[in-house]
Amino acid sequence: xxxxxxxxxxxxxxxxxxxxxxxxxxxxxxxxxxxxxxxxxxxxxxxxxxxxxxxxxxxxxxxxxxxxxxxxxxxxxxxxxxxxxxxxxxxxxxxxxxxxxxxxxxxxxxxxxxxxxxxxxxxxxxxxxxxxxxxxxxxxxxxxxxxxxxxxxxxxxxxxxxxxxxxxxxxxxxxxxxxxxxxxxxxxxxxxxxxxxxxxxxxxxxxxxxxxxxxxxxxxxxxxxxxxxxxxxxxxxxxxxxxxxxxxxxxxxxxxxxxxxxxxxxxxxxxxxxxxxxxxxxxxxxxxxxxxxxxxxxxxxxxxxxxxxxxxxxxxxxxxxxxxxxxxxxxxxxxxxxxxxxxxxxx
Length: 347
Hints:
By secondary structure, the chain is of the alpha/beta class. It folds into two domains: 2-147 and 312-342, Quinone Oxidoreductase, Chain A, domain 1, CATH 3.90.180.10; 152-289, Quinone Oxidoreductase, Chain A, domain 1 (Alpha-Beta Complex), CATH 3.90.180.10. Helices cover 28% and strands 27% of the residues. The chain contains eleven helices and 18 strands. The chain has helices at 41-48, 97-100, 141-146, 148-161, 178-190, 201-210, 224-231, 249-254, 277-283, 295-307, 323-329; strands at 2-6, 16-19, 29-39, 59-60, 64-72, 84-87, 90-91, 111-112, 124-128, 132-134, 169-173, 193-198, 214-217, 237-242, 256-264, 286-289, 314-319, 338-342. Helix 5 links the parallel strand 11 (169-173) and strand 12. Helix 4 (148-161) packs across helix 5 and helix 4 (148-161) crosses helix 10.
């Protein structure tokens, strides 16, 4: 079976089409014929090699996918061959203490499709039946492939981990990535006043159209912490959503209100940094980490997608043969939203 991924770790030049075994669903599993997949920055990290994460190679990239049910494993009920579905890319064992409490994101064996397992940029994917959900009627395969990872990440980070409440202020650091476009929508749905920081005037206009109450264009003469402090009338921001990491986190801390929370969901620009802890204790603030979501949180996201109150932002769609160009698009300064690959239908 053909897939897009890599045989050796490295930069984007190492990405290529590879051959892997066609998967067969076991008991409690479903095989999906994929019609669309999307890339995340996680794919670039997986390609480069993540310390401590050992994977089978050749390896297929892609955590998000949508398509139709192709085959049911023994014991699977509630799904039929041909059903339009999307995949929850978070994989849990269902047996540990956390899973039994409905806290699947804390599972000691938690994995992510395309990072720890073969991914979605291929013909078929096999996942547990609990990870297969009906694709909302209003959504295309491409939209279904653009939504799962970023919306569940934003939902949990802001609503659960960040404890964002109606009437509070929320800053989204960076305007272009898929998770940032999801975070703007989740924060607005919560009833918060939302501000986005970006270095691009073009992205500023798109963030406003997406629903941001204010967009601050930052740069060397207007660093993000100063811009947010002035915007908040020197009160500080209640919740800051930060996926950038090392360059932005110290600035985010300085822009916090008393009792404020920085929620870190990624490190796209660096993972190691130093901070002034005096800011934390004097403002009684906190740094909180978040990744993926519990099953119930994913269900809540799906409900909002079905109702049209959340909508994935697709930056661009590429045919399958142009998957290398699609992956390269992730590094484009013009990126705004998700990069989707359209897979061919069954022969």
